[in-house]
Amino acid sequence: MRCVSIEHKLGIHASPTCVMAYGDNGGATGYLVGRENEGLKYMFVMMNAARFAVGLEGVAIAERAYQRALQYARERLQGRDLADGSGPVPIIRHPDIRRMLMLMKSQTEAMRALAYVVAAAHDAAARHPDAAERQRNQAFVDLMIPVVKGWSTEVGNEIASLGVQIHGGMGFIEETGAAQHLRDARITTIYEGTTGIQANDLIGRKIAREGGATLKAVVAAMQQVAQELAAQPGEEFAALHAGFARGVEALAGAATHVATRFSEDILAVHVGAVPFLRLMGIVSGGWQLARAALVAQRKLAAGEGDAGFCKAKISTARFYADHLLAQAPGLAATVIKGGAGALAIAEDAL
Hints:
Helices cover about 70% and strands about 5% of the residues. It has helices at about 5-10, 40-75, 95-125, 130-165, 180-185, 195-205, 215-230, 235-260, 265-270, 275-300, 305-325, 330-335, 340-345, and strands at about 20, 30.
């Protein structure tokens, strides 16, 4: 079978999208899809869909790893209760197991919520009747795709690893299934572009190219949520507001650094690309959990919905603020200051 490239026939040096119709005799016929020399743009429509799907794979593995670890923690009897000395008790009563389970639960909920918000924006970008709204939503989708893909798969790996840790030695026994989730998760940070590629895309094509305009709009929306949190009563909302506000401030500062220093010190800025992606994922996930907590608070105040579910949403958001959003200032410092140390050592000294 002879296959003739449509690029060759048209003399196109870029990569136009084409469909090859294969015949048994006489080679193949290529059909141009879209306009000449715009193939890369069309390819990214496909790539963004694939990257979003892989991000959801990270979320799905994280959820299943959490379900399995939670069930095991409720059933496994080991050790005594630290508070009253009774025992043996299910390991879910041990503080460190609770911490790990909450890391799994809160991050999975944050990743899922962010992915759903991006999916809704994708629909609005395609079908909203107002052209300006379509453009605004598409810009948001383009900005967040590398975050959904890169952050969700990296955290999916971490959550699957926590699942093995909660199982202890049984995590390496195949009948538990815990190790399978970790093996399944590992490839997701490589599918459709490694985490480094997602991070480079985020800081270069999605932030520096437009001077951070779309991200500034997102930060403004986050700041509005922070103001709503500040108006809520109670210790949990005070802690949630404090953690989230610090996270948004850290993200804004790091984003300004990326946008302003990108062309002047491109190597150093790229050293901070993956830490920036993680920072943006953590704060964006906290944004969604904060929104959920506000909805839960309104339902509790109105006597609507499942009270236990709503209270759990607020507590989960508070945990996320204390344990995950607390990392934001450190990540921002790495983005801003970390380039020099990474580049200072000569290649032959590594």
